[in-house]
Amino acid sequence: MEEMFSGCSSLTGGDFTLIMLLLNDNITNISKMFSGCRGINAEIKYDLFRHCPNVTNITSFAENTSLSGGIYSRCDNYPGTFDFIPNV
């Protein structure tokens, strides 16, 4: 998955739902996954990486990315985006 969507443009919430279907426990590296993307018009879902417990590298995950939504931080009501990845 390293750099899989790097340089993409115009992702929406529906795209992230489809991306979740591609993710599984065989994935160990999401480095630069969304690096350099433009016009992302969605938030990166808090459970995007629910099925990826073996990831060990998230370096520059969204480096130089234009994101109009956000990346969830942990709060009382829900986990943060990276909380499902215990090894990072």
Detailed description of the structure:
The chain has one helix and no strands. It has one helix at residues 13-22. It starts with 12 loop residues before the first helix and ends in a 66-residue tail after the last helix. The model has no long low-confidence stretch (mean pLDDT 87).
As a percent range, the share of helical residues equals 10-25%
Mean pLDDT: 87
Query: How big is the Rg?
Result: 12 Å
The geometry reads as globular
Low-confidence stretches: none
How large is the count of helical segments? 1
Q: Spell out the helices and strands N to C.
A: H
Q: Mind describing the biggest β-sheet?
A: none
The beta-strand count equals 0
β-strand percent reads under 5%
Distance between the termini: 16 Å
Alpha-beta content class = little secondary structure
List the helices and strands and how they pair.
Layout: H1 13-22
Short description:
By secondary structure, the chain is mostly loops. It is built from one helix and no strands. The model has no long low-confidence stretch (mean pLDDT 87).
